[in-house]
Design a protein that fits this description.
Blueprint: H1 2-67, E1 94-99, E2 102-106, E3 112-119, H2 125-133, E4 135-137, H3 140-150
Antiparallel strand pairs: 1-2, 1-4, 2-3
Length: 158
């Protein structure tokens, strides 16, 4: 009888040990999971902070670009605020040239930004020759003037 009691005690002890070990493992797993979640939240916050810094730097760079000397040196490095009053927009440089037999407007990266509904073959020979090479303009105002001269609808006001 004593042997049976000892066997039962050993069985109960083994079951309790297994239960405690399982509970401890679950506790440690949950603890690791919580640490991982905390680390991920910390990482998300750092990414958000970095995005904020990048956006701030981007705004600063855009503001500095407005005051930097033009590529051709025409404003000699003078800030727009020190120069004569002008529009506060950054001027874009365009090239107007032939695009599949129509007048095309290209940006500084030589990407087509607009195609006008005027056939190049209908223009005078001198204009056709200029458009085959490409006519460079340095502002929206110059672009509007050129397109008016070519008989196009004003750029941006279609």
């Amino acid at each position: 009888m004593k042997l049976v009691k000892m066997a039962r005690f050993a069985t109960v002890t083994a079951l309790l040990s297994a239960s405690l070990l399982s509970a401890y493992s679950n506790y440690k797993a949950k603890e690791s999971y919580n640490k991982m979640r905390s680390g991920m939240n910390d990482l998300k916050n750092r990414i958000f902070d970095l995005r904020t810094v990048i956006n701030s730097l981007t705004r600063q760079l855009k503001a500095q670009n407005a005051s930097i000397c033009d590529a051709d040196g025409s404003n000699m490095g003078i800030n727009q605020s020190d120069a004569q009053p002008q529009d506060n927009k950054i001027e874009t440089h365009y090239t107007v040239k032939d695009h599949n037999g129509m007048v095309g407007v290209y940006n500084e990266e030589n990407l087509l930004v607009d195609e006008k509904s005027i056939v190049i073959a209908s223009l005078p020979a001198s204009d056709r020759q200029d458009l085959s090479i490409g006519i460079k303009v340095n502002s929206d105002k110059e672009l509007d003037k050129l397109l008016d001269e070519l008989g196009c609808i004003k750029y941006g006001n279609q």
